[in-house]
Design goal:
The chain is mostly helical and 305 residues long. It contains 14 helices and no strands. The relative contact order is 0.20. The N terminus is likely disordered.
C-alpha cells in the first residue's frame, strides 16, 4: 500500500483521472452483468448462474496465484475473516440475482443505493471508526429516501422487496468485512480470497440446482463470466490508481446504468416514489463520501505538520 500511495503522490491528478476512468468502466460492466444475470435467472436458478460465474472467477484466481505464488498471494493477517467475506459475497450474489428476477433491476438498485450509507452508519459501532454528525445526518436523510422507496404500510412487503433488502444488508456486511481486512491485507489478497472462497462455497451448493442451457444462453453465460472478471479487474485498477474517497462516488453510476437497462431492456416501470427516494439516497451518499474525503484530507495535512 505504501508503494501505491507513493506512486499516487508522484503523479497526482493523472492517477485520479485514471482511477475514475477505471471505476466508471467497472460500474458499467457490473451493470451489464446484472442485466445478463437477470435474463438468465428468469429461466434458471440464481444459484446455478452464480456457480458458473464463480468457477470462472476462481479459475482466474488460480491462474494468477500460479504465476505469483500461492503462499505469497494468500498470506493474510485475517484468513478466517477473508474466507467468511468471500463466502458471504457469493451467497449475496445468489440473493441479489433472485431479487433482480423477481423485483426488477431498477427497484432493486434503488434500494442498493442505500448500502454505502448503511456502511457509514455501521462503521462506527462495528469498526470503531469516528462518524461525525454530518455523516450521521446523511444516513438519516438516506433512510428517509429508503422509506419513500419501500413505503411500508402503503404496499405489502413482497418477497422481491424482502430479498432486495436482505441482499443490501448482506452486501453492507461484506463491505464492512472488506474494510476490516484492508487494515492488514493487500487488495490482491482480498481479491484471491473472494474468488476462491466463493468458488468453493458455490461448488458445494451449486450442482444441486443444475439446469440445462440453450446455445444462446451458453453464449450469455460466457459473456457474463468474462464481464465479471473484467469488472473486478477494472475495480482493482481503480483503487490502485487513486484514493477510494476520490473514486467511490462514481460507483453510484451503477444504480443509474442498471436502472436504465431495467427500464429500456426489460420494460420495468419505476414509480415516482422510487425515483424520488433513489435520488435522495444517492444525494445523501455523495454528501457522506464528500465528508469522508474532507476528513481524510484534514487528517493527512495534520500528520504532515
Amino acid at each position: 500500500m505504501a508503494n501505491i500511495t507513493a506512486a499516487q503522490a508522484s503523479t497526482g491528478k493523472t492517477d485520479t483521472l485514471r482511477g475514475v476512468a477505471f471505476m466508471i468502466a467497472a460500474t458499467l460492466i457490473f451493470s451489464a452483468q446484472d442485466g445478463l444475470s437477470k435474463a438468465l435467472a428468469e429461466d434458471h436458478p440464481a444459484i446455478f448462474v452464480t456457480l458458473w460465474r464463480y468457477w470462472a472467477f476462481g479459475a482466474v484466481c488460480l491462474l494468477l496465484l500460479w504465476r505469483t505464488g500461492f503462499k505469497k498471494g494468500l498470506a493474510s493477517g485475517q484468513p478466517r475473516l477473508q474466507i467468511a467475506r468471500g463466502v458471504l459475497l457469493a451467497l449475496q450474489i445468489c440473493v441479489a440475482i433472485t431479487a433482480f428476477a423477481i423485483n426488477g433491476l431498477a427497484p432493486s438498485h434503488a434500494v442498493f443505493a442505500f448500502v454505502p450509507l448503511l456502511v457509514v452508519g455501521l462503521s462506527g459501532p462495528v469498526l470503531g471508526e469516528k462518524v461525525g454528525w454530518r455523516r450521521w445526518s446523511a444516513v438519516g436523510v438516506g433512510m428517509i429516501g429508503m422509506l419513500l422507496i419501500i413505503r411500508p404500510g402503503s404496499q405489502p412487503l413482497t418477497p422481491g422487496i424482502l430479498l432486495t433488502m436482505l441482499a443490501a444488508c448482506m452486501f453492507a456486511a461484506y463491505q464492512l468485512m472488506t474494510r476490516r481486512v484492508a487494515r492488514t491485507d493487500a487488495a490482491m489478497t482480498s481479491f484471491y480470497y473472494t474468488g476462491l472462497a466463493g468458488a468453493a462455497a458455490m461448488t458445494f451448493i451449486g450442482p444441486w440446482f443444475w439446469s440445462s442451457f440453450t446455445p444462446f444462453e451458453v453464449l450469455l453465460l460466457v459473456i457474463l463470466c468474462i464481464s465479471g472478471m473484467t469488472g473486478h479487474l477494472m475495480l482493482i485498477k481503480a483503487f490502485e490508481a487513486a484514493e477510494a474517497s476520490a473514486i467511490q462516488p462514481f460507483s453510484y453510476l451503477q444504480t443509474v446504468a442498471a436502472s436504465t437497462i431495467g427500464v429500456v431492456v426489460f420494460g420495468e416501470v419505476m414509480s415516482r416514489w422510487t425515483v424520488l427516494g433513489g435520488a435522495i439516497v444517492i444525494s445523501a451518499g455523495l454528501f457522506a463520501f464528500w465528508r469522508e474525503r474532507v476528513r481524510a484530507k484534514a487528517a493527512a495535512e495534520a500528520a504532515t505538520r
